[in-house]
Amino acid sequence: MAPSPTGPLHIGTARTSLYNALFARHVGGTYVLRIEDTDLARSTADFERDILDNLHWLGITWDEGPQHAGGDAGGEDIGPYAPYRQSLRMDRYAREADRLLASGAAYHCWCTTDELDAVRREQEARKQAPRYNGRCLTLTDADRAQFEAEGRRPAVRFRVPAERIRFDDLIRGEVEFDNGLLGDFVIVRADGVPLYHFVVVIDDEQMEISHVIRGEDHLSNTPKHIALIRALGYREPVFGHIPLILNPDRSKMSKRKSQTAISDYREQGYLPEAMVNFLAFLGWSPGTKEEIFSLDELAARFEIGEVHKAGAVFDRDRLDYLNGVYIRGLTDDELTARLRPLLPAALADHVLAGLVPLVKERMVRLTDAVELSDFLSEPDEVVASWWSVDDLLPKGRDATEVAAALGAARAALAADDGWAAERLETVGREAAEAHGWKAGDFFKPIRVAVTGKAISPPLFGSMVLLGRERSLARMDGALERLRTGAAA
RNA sequence: GCCGCAUUCGUCUAGAGGCCUAGGACACCGCCCUCUCAAGGCGGAGAUCACCGGUUCGAAUCCGGUAUGCGGUACCA
Q1: Residue A286 CA to B20 C1' — how many Å?
Q2: What is the pLDDT of residue A125?
């Protein structure tokens, strides 16, 4: 797996990482992670940290590669072929470029960006394939001396042999390209920085990569890599190109149209287990009716050859559903621990522990607990500001009637000295019956007064967590507003 | 433009010649349960298997073509 730290860990990169991990674990292989940071201008240490951190968060582990972010400052890489960051392997690439130059498989190109653009525009205007015209292939020594004298620095171009390239893709089967259609592409920039197609091939050889599993967007790059592999005398790895994850409009999933950073999902309260389960099924299925699988179970069943060929739309609804399933599958203690950092410190641990069973099956994301529990940590005045008198009224009842009902409820509940949920509910129901109201209607003003909202966790459990005094005080506050409102 | 890849309910998918009048899940709708909301249970609607032609007694499944979509076509990865 070879992510490029030019952005935060992307959903697609995470899924590719997952498939690599599942494949490696399933066949008992060695999973290698390499940081592709040759694009110095766009790569940052922060992005690298984000990628490694979030991969760890998902539970994806690798056998070789940087275990911690740190750039060249010293995240110690693990594995026999360290370093696993391309920015630290430049001497190796320079040596291989020299080999290619010496053998004539590559040549210097002095063309400037402007010159190349001009040629390309001309080709496009003539409806020709835009590719390098080979100008620097026929330069004389005098030409070269002239460019040198002008201060121009040459890039290195690979001389692409015009041949048909065929390979057996793990997922797509036999694929064939005609490299005669390709122009000679640059492998080392004029500033000496080697480019992706070149370094990936060198590293794969030196790190003894046997299987390259990557996104389908690399399928048409593969013939370039194979040509380079042959020119360098390397062993050809097995390739597998997995389908793309798509925006709802079926284009390649992008930041513009979808949320793509794993860290965003993490912040929004998605569980890593749910993300992994969801991502695994975006492009693969075990063929069973069962669809809840842990990482270990996935690794046990995963077959790379069963991966689909067509892209899959990222379906947020399905992720939400799965996340809810996983939240409900957590023990109360586990959920309490995961919720703790998201909720105000003022919310006491024992209150949180009591809250969890009340909200567990009402959550889609961990962050939902914030709104479900804020009535416990906000002061009475704030909670009172969330509602208006109208919010207290069940359908068809006016303020005077509701004041009477709430007054009766308050009196009955206050008369109970235990303040336990089950007992309170019994008292509440008896009071409702005595008052001649349906329980639902009778409880509505209590709910709004106590929790500030028409939708809340179970009422009596909520009242227990809030405490007798504050619950009664909030009901008193509501009664007051009902009476003044009714009077007005 | 050129090259490549793909195409089963809105979405994720099952399906590898007869078990398919195409199964499941999410989303949607209805009912039940119910102190609100969820969760849960039950049921419903939803796919002429992109299209056309062929092979075959028989095709979603095999072959050919067409269309559409997507990806690539950088001194980005």
Answers
A1: 20
A2: 83
